[in-house]
């Protein structure tokens, strides 16, 4: 009971701090680029995940990224955590070099891109999450933001995508920081982040007088992802048990209640790339990209591609691009 009351007090106190001091930061940085559907009514996203890049460039990883971007020519590139491996990038210079290996590769395409961080990005690294996000944000075409309602997190933000005439948003992307580790195991989306998602969704609906169909991306899978895996009702490969968030603080229930998010996609488990529906919401993995991370000969490295239609923004198609 004392532990519950203490957590309750911390939650209320943090919410007060958020409203008093932090809320203004949500609007401090406008979206760097206006994203919009092509004249054909299509918008294409490429998701890379688990690059595990180090100071010494992994040419196989970088070449894979180059090949995918050249062939797919996406409108937006998302990298969903474990972008670098902090265990091998402990100094500031090593961290900057590892990030530059990634950033320079994507920047060469002049395609807008954004990242969220995973559990390994800052592990044993002297550069914390906010400082790493600042480094990413310093690149010309990077659209990441460093805001979070949670101390020690960085990168809860959204990206609006307008219709092909650039008149009004028809799609929204939520990016969230699922943390790294806690005493229970892997970290989790907190209640404060759930409340942030609910407030932002409400504000967007009021601003644009409609519920905007959305996708959500972060690194560590929800506990509900394991339910999908155990059900066997999915498309793709399941080659390992899901390493999910250690606590469920209500995000999935909130997604069902708010009703704007149609798909949630993560990384983290390198040899899973499946997706399946639970209560009408698609829960899925991106194909693991980096050759520095562990793998499985049954599942080659690659990326995940998302195709969205301006006339049916609540629906999407996906496919994998292999090395």
Uncertain spans: none
In this structure, how is the largest beta sheet organized?
Answer: 7 strands, mixed
Q: Tell me the strand order in the biggest sheet.
A: 1-5-6-9-10-12-11
Number of continuous helical runs: 7
Mean pLDDT: 93
Distance between the termini: 52 Å
Order of helices and strands: HEEHEHEHEEEEHEHHEEEEE
Q: How many β-strand runs? A: 14
Task: Please give a structural write-up.
The protein has 323 residues and is an alpha/beta fold. It is 29% helix and 23% strand. The protein has helices spanning 2-22, 59-72, 92-107, 129-137, 191-208, 223-231, 251-258, and strands at 35-36, 42-48, 76-80, 113-116, 157-162, 169-175, 181-182, 185-186, 214-217, 261-266, 275-278, 281-285, 302-309, 312-322. The strands form three sheets. It has a seven-stranded mixed beta sheet, covered by helices on one side. The protein has a five-stranded mixed beta sheet with strand order 4-3-2-13-14, with helices on one face. Strands 7-8 form a two-stranded antiparallel sheet. Helix 2 runs parallel beside helix 3. The model has no long low-confidence stretch (mean pLDDT 93).
Structure at a glance:
The protein has 323 residues and is an alpha/beta fold. It is built from seven helices and 14 strands.
């Amino acid at each position: 009971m004392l532990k519950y009351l203490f957590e309750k007090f911390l939650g209320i106190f943090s919410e007060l701090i958020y409203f008093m001091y932090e809320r203004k930061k949500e609007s401090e940085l406008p979206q760097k680029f206006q994203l919009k559907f092509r004249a054909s009514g299509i918008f294409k996203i490429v998701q890379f995940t688990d690059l595990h890049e180090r100071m010494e460039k992994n040419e196989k990883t970088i070449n894979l990224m180059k090949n995918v971007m050249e062939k797919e020519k996406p409108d937006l590139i998302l990298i969903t955590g474990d972008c670098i491996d902090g265990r091998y990038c402990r100094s500031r210079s090593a961290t900057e070099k590892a990030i530059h290996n990634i950033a320079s590769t994507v920047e060469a395409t002049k395609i807008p891109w954004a990242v969220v961080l995973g559990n390994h990005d800052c592990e044993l690294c002297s550069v914390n999450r906010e400082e790493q996000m600042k480094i990413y944000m310093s690149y010309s075409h990077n659209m990441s933001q460093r805001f979070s309602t949670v101390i020690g997190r960085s990168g809860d933000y959204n990206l609006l995508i307008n219709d092909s005439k650039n008149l009004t948003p028809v799609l929204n992307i939520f990016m969230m920081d699922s943390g790294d580790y806690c005493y229970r195991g892997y970290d989790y989306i907190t209640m404060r982040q759930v409340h942030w998602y609910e407030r932002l969704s409400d504000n967007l609906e009021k601003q644009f007088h409609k519920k905007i169909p959305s996708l959500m991306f972060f690194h560590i899978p929800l506990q509900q992802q394991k339910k999908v895996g155990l059900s066997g009702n999915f498309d793709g490969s399941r080659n390992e048990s899901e390493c999910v968030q250690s606590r469920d603080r209500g995000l999935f229930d909130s997604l069902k209640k708010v009703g704007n998010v149609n798909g949630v996609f993560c990384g983290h488990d390198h040899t899973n790339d499946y997706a399946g529906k639970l209560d009408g919401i698609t829960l899925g993995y991106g194909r693991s990209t980096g050759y520095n991370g562990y793998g499985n000969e049954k599942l080659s490295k690659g990326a995940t591609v998302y195709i969205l239609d301006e006339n049916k923004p609540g629906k999407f198609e996906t496919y994998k691009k292999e090395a």
